[in-house]
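hey all, quick one before standup. I had two proteins in the batch that finished overnight and I want to keep them in one place so we stop losing track of which output belongs to which input. First protein below, input sequence then structure tokens straight from the run.
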Amino acid sequence: MRKINYAILVCSFLLTHSFLFAQSIRYPSIKKTNQVDDYFGTKVTDPYRWLENDTAADVKQWVQEEDKVTFDYLSKIPFRDKIKQRLTEIINYPKYGSPFRAGEYYFFSKNDGLQNQSVIYYQKGLEGKPEVFIDPNKMSSDGTAAVTLMGFSKNKKYIAYAINQSGSDWQTIFVMDIQKHEQLKDTLKWVKFSGAAWKGDGFYYSRYDAPQQGKEFSNKNEFHKVYYHHLGDAQEKDELTYEDKTKPLRYYGAQTTEDERFLILNAEEGTYGTEIQYKDLITGDKEFHLLFAGFTHNYSVINNNGGMLLVQTDDDAPNQRVVQVDPKKPAKENWKTIIAEQPELLSSASTGGGKLYAEYLKDVATHAYQYDITGKKEHEIKLPGLGTASGFGGNWDDKIIFYTYTSFNYPPAIFKYDIATGQSVVWQKPTVKFTPDDYEIEQVFYPSKDGTKVPMFIVHKKGLPKNGKNPTLLYAYGGFNINITPAFSASRIMLLENGGIFAVANLRGGGEYGEKWHKAGMLLKKQNVFDDFIAAAEYLIKEKYTSKDYLAIQGGSNGGLLIGACETQRPDLYKVCIPQVGVMDMLRFHKFTVGWGWVVEYGSSDSSKYFKNLYSYSPIHNIKDVSYPATLVTTADHDDRVVPAHSFKFISTLQEHQKGTAPTLIRIDVKAGHGAGKPISKVIDEQTDIYSFIFYNMGITPKY
């Protein structure tokens, strides 16, 4: 492979835009073992099994060697510094979170622009002076400590908050006296997937037992438990509220209604389906009572109205509805429908100011409405356009609430909403260094392999020619009932202002059209998701938005699986692939941390019913001796959601079998996790490398 001659490169650019860069790459040597597993008579080799032990010395050495190869490659991209400079400029704008009221105080988050973590502020009333309440940036020298507010006591005297370190899902809970602005001595460790459900001078929370030392970020998490913590007590004194020693693979979460009358126990066996039990704390219930049996449907208690519970569910309503349930008579025939199922998906329902708020998705755009507590529609909440609105809801006695609205060319803005009049006014709207009116958003509906119409957003500069030469980034997720709705991303401006196209395909497996859409892309129907994505790429090429020489694909987590599967199924279709923190080993994902929770979505290789299907698309098991696109895998050392072993094994297999000349690299971040809480400095560095890699391998120099 030839070396880059920069003088020739500059001259070539003056003559043509279709040149290609290349670098000579020597990948680290890597050992292979003779590991073979027998799945129902099928022998499956796993020569890189040793990479699953992420704390082993030989794995750490391999990581260092791979990172050196990757960053040596990236450092030679001539416009990398210019991209970082522009990204930093675009991202440097004030970012606000919606205010919410707790007693006499309003709380909100703000990032001045380039702070690694948003700072939490509070102020007395809407006209008060904002003061710093918690500044996560002072908790670590590199910005890798992130803070989440967990819940306020009913008297609004205390707040529980959690700190995550280095992107891990593990949390430590602390408590603050709000008026005194003073941290109490309470410290609760090994918390994961929890809130703080207050009752009196304490709260319920969920945790695991302390993990094996050295295996904190990889060992399977089992036996989730709910405890009650009384303020001032040491954690070892916390009261065990609920456990089930016969069900190690369940999540348990506690919730109290706003008036603290009901304690709700939510149980989940994975990412879909719930079982709910409750206690009426006024009557002094000693035992939990079954409210909804699991795990065929989803149920979510929104709040209570006296002795009745308001519940959002897809039971007999794939697009969701709101029902009122008497916990003493919870059988379905006794439910009262408050908001009936609509043709559109009810994505969220909440209460505030004695009202109900319902957010619907109509062709993947938010439409929001206010109802009275009996279900009578009062207002449609007017939004600026086709985008995503969220955050409706508040306290029962609120007069105003706040919500956020965003779209692809509309940075997140905060609106203040008057409950009595149904009127919204802008509270905060950021100014970003780009011109929104320069861009347009199309929504198309393209046919998938089986003829299903799939929606896709296409964003680009107005008047962009369809000549097949536009650098295009196709993004999707396609799973777990998750909706990918219009949202602003400052980093994507980098692509758009260089004549690029950003496309988002709303694949089956997501929840954009309710539970039927979700089920059409899960378990034995998972291949529909990949077919939908491949069809999106083919549509963009057919309609001359781009061509295979200018098409990049990207996705993270389950979306990383999507990219890995589509790259191995159709390597001829793309120029660049960016699988991020992906689930790449579909035969062993359930053996690490909380991977067992995804079995309801994927199935398990422990079952003969699902093994063959998983094996048919598992990315690392479908790599062949062919020419693959330029690939940059990203992962992180503290990712305890999708452990980095997935990416380690995938890139090792890809490097072994790559028959083309395109680079196959892995970028392994340190002191970072699955994505949540990542400091802005790391976000900028990662996005710089992703866009540099994309442009470089398309042979395009950004115009800076």
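OK second protein, same deal, sequence then tokens:
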Amino acid sequence: MGRKNSKKTGKKKEKENPNEYTGKIELTRSGMGFVVVEGLETDILIRPNDFNTALHGDRVRVRAHPERGGKRIQGFVTEVLERKQSEFVGRLEMSKGFAFCIIDGDKKMPDIFIPQNAFNNAVDNDRVVVRIKEWEKDSKKRPVGEVVNVLDPEDINDMAMKEILLENGFPIAFPDDVMEETARIPEIISPDEINKRRDFREILTFTIDPADAKDFDDAISFRVLKNGNYEIGVHIADVSHYVLPETRLDEEAYAKATSVYLPDRVNPMLPEHISNVLCSLRPKEDKLTFSAVFQMTPKGKVKQYWLGRTIIHSDHRFTYEDVQEIIEKEEGIYSDEILLLNSIAQRLRKERFDAGAINFSSTEVRFKLDEKGKPIGIVVKESKEAHQLIEEFMLLANRHVAENVSKVEINKKPVPFAYRVHDLPSEEKLLPFMAFARKFGHKFDTSTPEAIADSFNTMLRDVSGKPEQHVLEQLGIRTMAKAIYTSDNIGHYGLGFEHYCHFTSPIRRYPDIMVHRVLEQVLKAKVKPDKKMDQKCKHCSERERAAMDSERAANKYKQVEYMRDYLGEEFDGVISGVAAFGFWVETIEHKCEGMVSITSLAEYDEFRLVDTDYSLVGMRSGRKFRLGDRVRIKVIAANLDKRQLDYEWVLTPMADEPVTEEAKPKTKRKKKKVE
């Protein structure tokens, strides 16, 4: 794969005021604030009287105090550029004609004033969700808010999930004006709109999604052409037809930038009427789509492709389980088409890995929940050929859309576009990993990016089924850079693509809507370069990370909730992380991670962290706890408030044995999807 230099060239724009900076403010328990500025060696100290309504996590503009010396730069907030959070959980304290909401959490927060007409049926001492409506700048007045939700004190799970979402800046309900705007969108597709589009309604089309999905944002069409080749259409919900720029609906979607998937709920980017009705490609309904249509040979070679707006009529709704059964039994509705598509998908998959895509694997789990959301079981997710069928055609569409846009220039400059990029592993992370892998006989060729990818794949093939597989896979994944959105097209290293974007999930990702809009302009040759594209890409990357943090926190909560029923019991586990203060263990049976504190090991030995070996080593005994080793643990504490599991190491004859094939979890491994 050809690589571009990830460093941007050109003169750096001079700052208008050398004492002004932009960054994120972080508040401490003591009430002090620190603004983290990219490229600045030290954070800027902000005293409580200088916050100017800024709250924890907000993106702010600050001005440094040039007259104040000392080791740390001090400053004051001049403007709040972007709120991380506008809704909060707290307790209502009522007075005559008004109330204050006392906000939960360890971050310093002013009480929020609630006028009587904004109580929303809440009563004194209720735990509520409040939304800040106004807050005068440079004012000593408190923020003014409204109650948007009264929490049920008996539904602890619901409260916990909502708090996790709010902590990460995801509102739990859409504002009234957004819902009103959504309700005004016409449901009937006009003949004039149909005439503007390529019509696929008479061509076999179907969707393949999880059994519990309601937002079907992609469909596949298939037909055999007269020349013996296949026409395969990847049809994506045309969200940008309904969500128009500069509307409240668009503003709210951009602010969220992504849907969030928690174990018991989805916090959607778009209102349900759009995500599950208007834009969902439901069977037996005409739907507006944006499509990538490929002419392919039976061997999966793309002869030509077409991009544009379409209308489809899905003939059938498949679940992944339905399609997997057809693949395995070679029979069922539309089996001929499914089997041909699967054959091509597997060819595309092989070509991708042969060309340098990195083939990491991991095991993913989901919780089985009762009617109240309590976890009652854990199920291992498996990636089978049915999942890979959809994945490969989505990757194909994403790649060709990005490649198409990358060829267009405006005033001899690339069109600003939301590329999905993945940079090379940093030398800082790669070198220690290579040294560790060398202990197991694996050598890395670092002469080119392609050689590094090939070395990774060779290692992954060689360790399959060996005791060190788990640790090398885990550490290998950690060396990788994080994929982000940016207009600087440096390619996608993990996938091995020179051009890549997200085009296929606009119901749940805002960058896909941005991609659709730019693609439409390119196809019409009426491009209006978006000068804020970089800023929008950065925002979407940040919201994606916040969604991942929410999902991790919610999964951790469910793990703790599940393991509370097993206090005092012992389980086999695998060491999943090491630190100077202890090591983490993931139970083999439940995939639930907890911490073994170094203080609990003091009776056995004094342990020290050996960074280069990813292990804790006993100073007297030489006993070693290394990442990937199998250990026996006892569950000793499960703290739901802290979302924390505490384990205790159990000395057994097997405790020092490495993970063997017999000792490893009896689960199939899922190929990690790198987006």
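Flagging for whoever picks this up: Confidence is low (pLDDT under 50) at residues 4-15, 654-674. The chain has four domains: 20-82, 181-414+504-553, 419-502, 567-671.
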